[in-house]
Amino acid sequence: xxxxxxxxxxxxxxxxxxxxxxxxxxxxxxxxxxxxxxxxxxxxxxxxxxxxxxxxxxxxxxxxxxxxxxxxxxxxxxxxxxxxxxxxxxxxxxxxxxxxxxxxxxxxxxxxxxxxxxxxxxxxxxxxxxxxxxxxxxxxxxxxxxxxxxxxxxxxxxxxxxxxxxxxxxxxxxxxxxxxxxxxxxxxxxxxxxxxxxxxxxxxxxxxxxxxxxxxxxxxxxxxxxxxxxxxxxxxxxxxxxxxxxxxxxxxxxxxxxxxxxxxxxxxxxxxxxxxxxxxxxxxxxxxxxxxxxxxxxxxxxxxxxxxxxxxxxxxxxxxxxxxxxxxxxxxxxxxxxxxxxxxxxxxxxxxxxxxxxxxxxxxxxxxxxxxxxxxxxxxxxxxxxxxxxxxxxxxxxxxxxxxxxxxxxxxxxxxxxxxxx
Amino acid sequence: xxxxxxxxxxxxxxxxxxxxxxxxxxxxxxxxxxxxxxxxxxxxxxxxxxxxxxxxxxxxxxxxxxxxxxxxxxxxxxxxxxxxxxxxxxxxxxxxxxxxxxxxxxxxxxxxxxxxxxxxxxxxxxxxxxxxxxxxxxxxxxxxxxxxxxxxxxxxxxxxxxxxxxxxxxxxxxxxxxxxxxxxxxxxxxxxxxxxxxxxxxxxxxxxxxxxxxxxxxxxxxxxxxxxxxxxxxxxxxxxxxxxxxxxxxxxxxxxxxxxxxxxxxxxxxxxxxxxxxxxxxxxxxxxxxxxxxxxxxxxxxxxxxxxxxxxxxxxxxxxxxxxxxxxxxxxxxxxxxxxxxxxxxxxxxxxxxxxxxxxxxxxxxxxxxxxxxxxxxxxxxxxxxxxxxxxxxxxxxxxxxxxxxxxxxxxxxxxxxxxxx
Lengths: 422, 422
What we know:
Aspartate Aminotransferase, domain 2
C-alpha cells in the first residue's frame, strides 16, 4: 500500500480539516457512517450543555429561553439547503416510519382534494427491495383503511427503471421510493421518475435515508411532493436521531395528516378541544419531541454550514473509486463481487460486495478496527463519509481486509455467531 | 413561616435522602415536576457516557454491546411495577400522541376480532377537558377512517362521573380517559370506570401522563386494556422524553397496530418485504428510537428502584396538604380559588388555583425562583414531586407567594407578556 500517495490525496482534499470536528474512535477506520454517523465535538458539548444547564438549571423555562419549542423548525431550515429545498418546507420530528405514515396519508388527502376517485387511484408503487420499514408502513395503512383505499404494489427495481410507463399508470396514487438503495447503493433517477409520475397523475414520496448529507439532492427542482429522511446516518445526528419530513410548498396550504398531535396545532397552549392545524410545515408535527435528541441533531448540522454538497459528492466518489482501485491492486476484487453500480453517478455513498462469508468477514474487520457492516443475505457494506473519512483510511481498510483474507482470520468460529443487530 | 417545624418534617421523611440524587437548580423551589421533572445526577452521567463512550468510541457496535436495541423493552420492564403491571406489557417509544394512535387503532382491531359490527359500536368516549392531544389523535383517526368507523364523543367530566351508564353504552367502542386531569388535578376512579366500560362491551385506554410516578396505578388490577403515559413529568426522563405504552396481556397475542415500523417486526434484520409483527409488547414499536433519549429515561428510573408508590403517594399528599394549610395560615386561600378536589384521594400530585392574574403571578413566582406553571385560561398549577420536593420547599414557596401578593410585584408590566410556551 502506497500510503504516502494517499497522504498527498488527503493534503489536497478541501474537506480534510473537517475531520478534526469529529470524535474519531481510537485507531479505527470508520466506514459505517451510512448506518450511524460519528459524533462531532460540538454535538457532544451541546448535549452536555443541554443536560447540565438547560434541563439541569433552567428546567421548564428552557422551552422559551433556549428555544426548545422552535428546534424542529430550526433544524428543518438547516436541513433545507442540504436537500435542495427552500426554507419552511422541512421539519425534524419522529422517525422515518412515522413520517412515512404521515406523508402517505397526506398524499392521499391531496388526491382526494383533487377529486380523484379513490377506487380508481389507490395504489402505492414501491420496489420490492426498498428498505422494509417503508413497505411495512404502507401495509399498516392498507390494513387500517382497506386495500381498496391503499394497496401496496411492488416492482422489481431494474424492471421499474427499464419501463416506467408499465409500472406508473392511472391506478398509481403514490410512487414511494428510496433514492439510494440500502443494500446495493444504487441511486435512482428521481427527477425522471417524478416527472413521469406527475404526468401519470401520481404523487411522489422520496425517502432520503441514504441520500441526505451524502449526495446532492434537489427536492424543489425535482418537484418532489413529499420526502422523509434520516439524520443519524450521513448527518451525524446520533443513534436513532429524529427524522425529517419535507412537504412541497404547493401542498402545504391544504395538506392534512392524521397523527395530528398538539405540537401541530395552530395554538397548542390554548388547549382547545378541537384540532386546528398550524399553517405551514409545522402541521407535520405530532407529539412533544425529545429535546436531548433534537439538540444533538441541531448541533451536528453545524459542520455542514461551510460545505457544499458538490464538494461532499466529489470526495465521496473519490473515496469509493480509490476503494475499488485498491481492491483491484490487491487482487481482492476477484473475491468480492461488487453489486453496486459500476458508474459512480449511479451510486450513493456506499459500496456493497456479495461474498458467501460476508458476515464473518465483517466481524473480523470490526475486530481489526475497520467498521463496516453486513446486510442480509450476504453483503458487506462500506460507507464513505467525506466529512471525516480520509483517503488514508481507505488504504488502511483495504490493507486490513487483504490481511484478513490472506490469513483466513474470518474463519474463526467466534465470527460466525449472529448478533441481535447485524 | 415556622421553618424549624418544616425542617423536622423533612428529617422525619423516609424519602428525604433521594433529594441528593437530583440536580436541584440553585436557590430554586421547583414545583413543576408535573410538567418537566428534574434531572438526576445519574441521568446526567449516563447521557455523558452515551455520547463520549457508546456513540463516540464504540459507534454502531453499541446496538449490541451496550444493549441499545433492548432499551425500549428494558425501560418498559422498569416502568411496569410503577404502574401496576407485570413485566412484558409495557414498552417505551415515541410520544403519547403517536402511542394513542396505535392504541386507538389496536382497540378497534380487538373489537373487530370480536366480531363487533363497527357501524354499531364506533364511538370513542372522552372528556371535553381531557388533554387536547388525546382528543386530536382521535380526530385524526376519525378523519382518516371516517366518522362511521371512529367518532369522538365528548362528555363533561362531572356529568360522566355522575352517570356512567348514560355515557357508556352499546355504541361506545373505546373509553379514553386521562386518569389525572392536567388542569384541575382531579383523579378519576379508573377501576370503577373500567368495570363499567367492560360490562357495556367497551375497551378502555388510560392516559397516565399525570399519574405515572405520582400516584399508585394498578393497570393489571383495574383490568385496563391499554394505557399510554409520559416519562418526562414525574418520571424525570428529560424534556420531551419518549412515552410508554401498555397493552394488557390478554390482548397481546392478537393485537395489531398500523404504525408497523421495522422495530416491531419479528425479525427486523432479515429485511423481509412483508411485515410480520413480533410476539408480545414489541409489536407496539415503530421506527428507530433515539438512544440519547432512551438512555436518559433508563437512567432516570433507577431512583424508583427502592421506593414504593405508596411512600411517594403519602408524601405527595403531605406536601399538598401542607401547601393548602399554609395558604390558609397566610390568608392567601381567600384569593386563590382551589379548583382541585378538596379530598386528597381524589387528586393527583398537583393543586390548581384559579386567579384572574394567574399568568402574571406565575411569572413573578418564577422570577423569585419558585417554578410553578400556568394553564389557560387562568390557572396557577403547583406540582409536588416527592422524590425531590421538601416540606421546607413548600414553606419557601408560600412565603414568596405571600410576598408577591402583598407587594403586588406581579403587576409589573413585564410579567404580562405571554411567551410561546406557557
